[in-house]
Amino acid sequence: MKKMNVAIIGDKFMGKAHSNAWKQAGYFFDLPIQPVLKVACGRNAEQLKEFAQRWGWEEVETDWRKVVGRKDIDIVDVSTPTYLHHDIVIAAAKAGKHIYCEKPTAVSYQEAKEMYQAVKAAKGKHYINFNYRRCPAIQLAKRLIDEGKLGRIYHWRGAYLQSWIMDPAFPLTWHLRKETAGAGPQYDLGSHNVDLARFLVGEVKSVMAMTAHFITERPLPDESVARTFQAGSKGTEKGKVGVEDAAFMTLEFENGALGAVESTRFAGGRKNYNYFEVYGSKGSILFDMERMNELEYFSMEDPDYAQGFRTILATEPVHAYVANWWPPGHAIGYEHEHVHAVVDFLKAVDSDKEMTPNLYDGMKVMQVLDAGLESARTGKKVALKDME
Amino acid sequence: MKKMNVAIIGDKFMGKAHSNAWKQAGYFFDLPIQPVLKVACGRNAEQLKEFAQRWGWEEVETDWRKVVGRKDIDIVDVSTPTYLHHDIVIAAAKAGKHIYCEKPTAVSYQEAKEMYQAVKAAKGKHYINFNYRRCPAIQLAKRLIDEGKLGRIYHWRGAYLQSWIMDPAFPLTWHLRKETAGAGPQYDLGSHNVDLARFLVGEVKSVMAMTAHFITERPLPDESVARTFQAGSKGTEKGKVGVEDAAFMTLEFENGALGAVESTRFAGGRKNYNYFEVYGSKGSILFDMERMNELEYFSMEDPDYAQGFRTILATEPVHAYVANWWPPGHAIGYEHEHVHAVVDFLKAVDSDKEMTPNLYDGMKVMQVLDAGLESARTGKKVALKDME
Amino acid sequence: MKKMNVAIIGDKFMGKAHSNAWKQAGYFFDLPIQPVLKVACGRNAEQLKEFAQRWGWEEVETDWRKVVGRKDIDIVDVSTPTYLHHDIVIAAAKAGKHIYCEKPTAVSYQEAKEMYQAVKAAKGKHYINFNYRRCPAIQLAKRLIDEGKLGRIYHWRGAYLQSWIMDPAFPLTWHLRKETAGAGPQYDLGSHNVDLARFLVGEVKSVMAMTAHFITERPLPDESVARTFQAGSKGTEKGKVGVEDAAFMTLEFENGALGAVESTRFAGGRKNYNYFEVYGSKGSILFDMERMNELEYFSMEDPDYAQGFRTILATEPVHAYVANWWPPGHAIGYEHEHVHAVVDFLKAVDSDKEMTPNLYDGMKVMQVLDAGLESARTGKKVALKDME
Amino acid sequence: MKKMNVAIIGDKFMGKAHSNAWKQAGYFFDLPIQPVLKVACGRNAEQLKEFAQRWGWEEVETDWRKVVGRKDIDIVDVSTPTYLHHDIVIAAAKAGKHIYCEKPTAVSYQEAKEMYQAVKAAKGKHYINFNYRRCPAIQLAKRLIDEGKLGRIYHWRGAYLQSWIMDPAFPLTWHLRKETAGAGPQYDLGSHNVDLARFLVGEVKSVMAMTAHFITERPLPDESVARTFQAGSKGTEKGKVGVEDAAFMTLEFENGALGAVESTRFAGGRKNYNYFEVYGSKGSILFDMERMNELEYFSMEDPDYAQGFRTILATEPVHAYVANWWPPGHAIGYEHEHVHAVVDFLKAVDSDKEMTPNLYDGMKVMQVLDAGLESARTGKKVALKDME
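Output (structure tokens, whole complex):
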């Protein structure tokens, strides 16, 4: 089988999720290309070494520029904090690599545009990891919409709610600084939700938004703690939170649909609640990532006395990707979406076809998100065409 | 027992709901005042007669001014289409009546202000029928918040979704004309949701909103059909829809909370989905009127390994109003909220205390709603203080 | 309109539920006969008087024999504790009355047989109040089954779970004595569930059962406390619990289906959980009385990628009884089932047709329940034909 | 790190699930022993070779006796159809191997006893793969019970419902023959549910049961089709189904609790519905394997106005195994339970401690199941002590 060498940049949460995906893909799916876990890149040499050993990355390297510059690397997997995406992606594009890039795309729409220009001018394939698209239940949502089962779309009611920083003692990690994250939940969470809105409903025309800042100072983090979601702080020193804590947007779509995307990290009880409702003239669908194996579907074409939201357990062989895993009713989990992305990415690379979502989508999502931030700043509706 | 004579104006859906409430209240609750169903008022003499006979209204009258002018009437129950509220309420206030008024308050904030001025200057008690406040599960929500169980409130995520006019053949009833309804779901549905937001979170500071118009023309209605929700049309002649089909708002509250209120009549599968989520620093609550006997509550003070949204069946004797009905687990329905309102209204009248929500609340809700409509029109954030 | 005089015997929980039903029926439905609330009968003269006054019963009487013997009484409503049903029903049958009898039928299958013999020989109509049959969602279940939407029935999984006597301090009310109640949850709860099994699946052929006795002694009750579900005890004196605390049955149906009916008063968190699942070759349905406005329905005839349990909100005009109440999504409650029963009973009386369920059904249910108790006693499967 | 050689016998559904577990364990957990995938054993040489290649098993072998006899094998993983477990386990025990055995234990209680005798006399560790015990939500159930949060246990309401053979055209695979499977859902599904009942409630004292046979003949299978759940048939020839289609049991536990275990393959809409409810004097829990990341918990110690079943998303770092996977709210799937079992098995082997559940548990479960089958055959209650 054809082989390709992969370099991963980033050895934290996403480094782990991606490493697992590169590993697992071949066990469950027939791949056209065998990915070779060639080199892992991270800043902390000790942590990096342990990471590489655990996941079987053959080599380690602490300078991402060297990694991107290597002739023997075919695929660059960008799993770093957001602020590094821009430079790495552009360098990798220029070096002719295939690019597998974590979201959010960049720390601004401007950066994302530059990234897209770079990959457009290059020959490698590029993918932006809006992994939720590859959840079987969301693939089913797409199928129902594409088949016309929802008719004309009237509404997108999206929300991505979490609660992991509600404790004021949670430290000022890179996610909470403007220079490293670009924005708060508007980027981190909203990017996923807006991507799904574009995937399922279509392009956005204009937005209005409000943001909130609940906790303005936080203790500085103890950088020696590796895990994002259990981060410790190193003392009493505090720094200013540079990003919003919540952002609520309303959206007009090109096709006339009216929507909402509400992102917050201050929704107690919500852990990874990436949620949406789509309402159309013939039917409706609901999805909650915390119950990721399920899709709710209401059909106005059912008999009038027997209409209701049906909870479809998207674990049948007819559902996307499922036949390669387990029998009906045997749930898959979060990581499987990453595996599916790797499978499709390798197929796209092999067949020289565009992969979606790619950095074009990544750029368009950033445009919506930055329009929202501008609206929150100015108190005015922002039309996307005025941003180009 | 003290008796008071009630006059009802309006003999359709709300006339029925209110008549039942005046009847039922005394069977299940100990009332300080016995309401006497004195006179029913409606426009269609034949329908009115049948209505009065069924519900035991002693007399009928087709001119509301005569009813309001009667000396023997103590309480005026305003159950008409919205556009009549203004004149009836002001006349009833001037005549010294106690006023029990259906929502939405009026066809504009301006009218609502005038109504409030009138009742403020009068001696009668006044109530605006945001009946959902008197759902036991919502009373429980209020209790949890008042006890501090939610801590500082961060978010209101409200929605009121219905689907009864999705069929383009649904006729142009009074609900769909600007002159009779004032607005579409922004008023009809949003008024309930905004009332609950004010009840549970507090005053609104500013809003942004977008509206949508999906179906712009509809067949003219057959006025001889009494029932709103099964209205028939009389032919092929069409008229222009004068109100929005959907309105999505974001809200800043005085206390810093960030919120949303989404109202639409184009959400297939949603029948009477008056829904909200409240997130605070210590806990969260969720409510769905389609499961009106339940409240979901998440406490961040539960042990870390045993936290979760609990579905409280608000049918225990400790829950508001419930001890007067049935044993635990025996659901009550929509109409019971109206009964509770009548009970509390008669108590307020008897004890000469203010009833809430009253026409002040009705006015404040209209202010928020009109601010939303203005924002949708201008594309700008609207501060409520700029409207006074 | 034709009028008929009603006498009610029993002034506690069921007296209240039935009184309300006699009152409400005419407001929402067009009745062929107007029920006149003639006389109320109870043992405690003071409580009875207050009860009659509240509900508008014209007269009171403490001796049920006198009531049954009155010429002017057309309908006898038997709302007493179970042990009195036998004598009252037989006397009422002999006196030619129409009989509206609360469940469970009697304190033994033997008694129930005698009651059925008596009504069969008499001319009056008779009804046994398995009220849940008249829940719109259960009527929908029946419709789906009758239309063949479930195909051949394989399973009934029934349960009726409550928790109101879990506190060992709950007193020894009549429900917990063999002489007054006949049995525990096997009768009180199981009777409802078995009635629904017969209604939806068919006749039972044989049963096996186990019972449990968790709390064997309880404080004696304070008889002056009227309310069953908040009963107080009068001191430290205790008496022996005479009935089972839980009964779990398995059942073979005549049509080959295999079933279960599990009844207990020791299921914390379950308040009025009258629950069933029916599985057939083409579809399945689920029902939970705590969400009585909903029915879940799974159709194996939906497309293979879009099958799921749909939650049907049985509040549409097409659903049984609903058009007479409120618009879609506006829930009805427990008491409405009693109203529906009164409506249908008066129609049956007026048209001289059999009402179902009647005392034949009451008898058949008792046969199943007693077969279960015998099985629990003997450790053997009991065939119903061996009991006749 | 210490290494041990693993031999797997069986290359179908369970061969895949186990292979994945042996692979994945080391990536996410720190193992005391590194498992080496030494040899895979299966009957069809071609399929076996493909299987071994995919999963990285170093060698292949079609004779299980040779595998068990190899000196270099430390661990024998028995993933075959049930009827082979007995001979393989006894041979592996005699050869001093550590045994990792799929469920159900054997084709009879008698066989299971012999297997347990063999492992008891041997030095190797042994594990029976009731994998659901290692679902984090079920570990949480165990924790709550062990901490006394449920108090005295009153009830186990268990069910394991599937639907994969409802189509009469589904062929007569080994699962449907008595000689290869021993029994139908009573063994396949009931074994899991009874294991959880023993794990969470305690030992069973006596049982009653009924079984049903809905489809008595089926087409013979096409043995060349590898996948159980999408099996094809080879033509029109039919054979007799040798096992029950459904088995409904009631159970008395040693501690006085009353329970039920209902197993069927004829419950449309249920895919892998391994379900239970546990009711105790202080609280209740509910679990559904189709929502395996959730546990519902009702505490009678919550304030009386705020009690309800809470849906605990068992994806927090404090929940068993979770800290090694993903952040809160990021679901794990079915296969993860197998990974957890491998981790704990290797720890038990390394520390020379008993692993649970083991073949003693496997035997005890078989005793309950065979008691159920005997009860269904004889129509009598069967006490477990009479079976020893």
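The mean pLDDT of chain D is 96.
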